[in-house]
Amino acid sequence: MSPPFLFDGPDDAPVTLLLAHGSGAPMDSAAMNAATAALAAEGLRVARFEFSYMAARRIDGSRKPPPKAETLNPEFVAAVAALGAKGPLIIGGKSMGGRVASMVADELHAKGKVAGLVCLGYPFHPPEKPAQLRTTHLMDLKVPTLICQGTRDPFGTKDEVLGYDLPERIRILWLEDGDHDLKPRKSLSGFSAADHLATMARTVKAWTETLR
Fold this sequence. Notes:
By secondary structure, this protein is of the alpha/beta class. About 35% of the residues lie in helices and about 15% in strands. The chain has one domain (about 5-60, about 65-210): 3-Layer(aba) Sandwich (Rossmann fold), CATH 3.40.50.
């Protein structure tokens, strides 16, 4: 059964983004809604979907922990097929959603089904467990990749990530003082959450234009 999608942005947009949610919050969480609204305001078409475990929570109210990220790879591939996007398709998501997308992106890119990968707050490691890195597959990624990351994200701060020696083809947009939702502490940074989301969306839009 095909997953239901949430759509934002113009139907005739030249580029479509297919985004998945993080491990603990649904596709219509406050963070996902805010990020999607910013992207749509830049003229991008955004489609969101939920992995089956999260969709099941809506029905039975269960709070079972999410499955291992790699077991969700087939669901992301199925969502790409079900979406049937016309024109360039960028896949990605927030946190775990972006991580799952990163694990299937190269195969889909090689088949001409996706043009790029966007991760909003990539979970480089679990919080407070910096040795448990999730970067091995990133070192060999061929698909054009943009990661938007807050400098104080507990899943990978700027100081930590700069030490990973990621390949240059992975572009990283650093958002000053941003947390895992890209949200800064305004009193310390001088930026607001809206500022950072607008910067993220403008950067994503400009980056997608380099892929066509």
